[in-house]
């Protein structure tokens, strides 16, 4: 696996950030950015006392450890990060509201995230007082972190934003944080700030990272479950247990009863606070009932489509998207036929194993197909829902 980042781009990370000795490697594991040791190349827990290395060591180890990038640990000492998802268009332009938000926060360093569709802002504040906040600014999803988290760093700074390599400040951070935590008011003219979720969901994400750091094996598998398996409302446990059974039927069809129980226990713990009835026995009984009744394991449709992809239409020839891009276009034709010309979902993390490339590259290929006029975006996805596309008419 070759790294999508170059050492050259990482050398553009400002000196004040690269001087912090808390760097790690990361690798994409079934759609999750799992932190790895610079020294051993093994998964790590970021809250362990012996992790975190120099920037220079991390950059040098990135390729020889076959990792996709580097990241920095946030430990509450003042370094903060703001994560903006889906804020860049397919052509790399800022979507509505982002420019004003950047002006409000006024960070000295803004870079493009590994997906190519988001932004990471870094800075130093005096008294960070939270572990993680999710909020909404207008129509933008905003995540704020300062502790018990690691953030990927690309060095691919936003060229349209002024970059001051000496400026480690992020003046608007505390004002945004105060309004997010109070759920009141606005900041400048960038829109209303609404607190949507605080540490519960962010801690769940950390729990997932910790489970991945245990290494391979049945207990690590639950961290890679698709969003369809995640419980979001108390009354949906039965339906989500069925989705969990569908996924596990595809992932570990020969698992023993004890292995399945361990996986379902992990699933139960991740969603414990959402459930009205807390007893594991109810989850286990629901799961066992679903396990025996699953007829179509998760991913079966994609497996069938990829097994018999149609030929590429003449009007799509000459796309110059490479062999992997051609496979993606053929899949879009198959999905178009299956849906009788209607919209179909495309998710980079779900498709990347079939295309044998990283989710980041898959998303770039999808963007390329849109830019070339082969498919068009119908509805933009959210954290729990894939974006929908439609095949364009032959040119």
Q: Which key terms come to mind for this protein?
A:
single chain, 395 residues, alpha+beta, Arc Repressor Mutant, subunit A, 3 domains, six-stranded antiparallel beta sheet, four-stranded antiparallel beta sheet, 14 helices, 13 strands, 36% helix
Proportion of strand residues: 15-25%
**How does the major sheet shape up?**
6 strands, antiparallel
How much helix, percentage-wise, in residues? Answer: 25-40%
Number of domains: 3
Oligomer: single chain
Say how many strands there are.
13
Could you report the average pLDDT, rounded to the nearest whole number?
82
Low-pLDDT runs of 5+ residues are: 184-220
> Structural class, from secondary structure content?
alpha+beta
How far apart the termini lie comes to 36 Å
- Enumerate how many helices there are, as a single number: 14
Strand order of the largest sheet: 5-6-4-8-7-10
The geometry reads as: globular
SSE order, one letter for each helix or strand: HHEEHEEHEEEEEHEHHHHHHHEHHEE
């Amino acid at each position: 696996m070759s790294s999508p980042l170059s050492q050259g781009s990482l050398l553009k990370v400002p000196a004040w950030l690269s001087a912090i000795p808390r760097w790690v490697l990361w690798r994409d594991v079934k759609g999750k950015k799992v932190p790895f040791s610079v020294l051993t190349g093994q998964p790590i827990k970021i809250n362990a006392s012996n992790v975190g290395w120099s920037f220079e060591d991390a950059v040098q180890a990135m390729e020889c450890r076959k990792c996709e990038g580097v990241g920095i640990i946030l430990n509450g000492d003042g370094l903060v990060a703001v994560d903006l998802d889906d804020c860049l268009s397919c052509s790399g332009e800022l979507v509505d509201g982002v420019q004003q938000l950047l002006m409000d926060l006024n960070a000295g360093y803004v870079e493009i995230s590994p997906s190519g569709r988001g932004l990471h802002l870094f800075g130093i504040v005096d008294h960070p007082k939270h572990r993680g906040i999710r909020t909404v600014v207008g129509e933008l999803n905003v995540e704020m972190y300062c502790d018990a988290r690691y953030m990927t760093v690309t060095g691919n700074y936003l060229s349209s934003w002024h970059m001051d390599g000496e400026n480690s400040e992020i003046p608007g951070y505390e004002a945004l944080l105060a309004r997010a935590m109070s759920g009141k008011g606005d900041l400048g003219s960038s829109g209303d700030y609404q607190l949507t979720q605080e540490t519960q969901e962010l801690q769940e994400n950390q729990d997932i990272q910790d489970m991945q750091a245990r290494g391979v094996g049945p207990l690590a598998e639950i961290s890679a479950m698709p969003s369809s398996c995640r419980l979001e409302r108390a009354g949906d446990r039965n339906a989500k247990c069925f989705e969990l059974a569908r996924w596990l039927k595809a992932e570990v069809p020969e698992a023993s009863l004890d292995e399945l129980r361990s996986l379902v226990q992990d699933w139960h713990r991740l969603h414990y606070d959402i459930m009205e009835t807390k007893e594991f026995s109810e989850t286990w009984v629901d799961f066992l009932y679903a396990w025996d009744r699953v007829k179509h394991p998760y991913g079966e449709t994609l497996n069938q489509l990829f097994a018999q992809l149609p030929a590429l239409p003449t009007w799509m020839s000459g796309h110059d998207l490479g062999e992997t891009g051609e496979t993606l276009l053929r899949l879009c034709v198959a999905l178009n036929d299956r849906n009788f010309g209607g919209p179909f979902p495309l998710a980079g993390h779900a498709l990347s194993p079939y295309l044998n490339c990283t989710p980041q590259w898959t998303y770039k290929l999808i963007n390329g197909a849109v830019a070339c006029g082969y498919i068009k975006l119908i509805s933009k996805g959210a954290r729990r829902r894939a974006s929908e596309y439609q095949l364009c008419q032959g040119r």
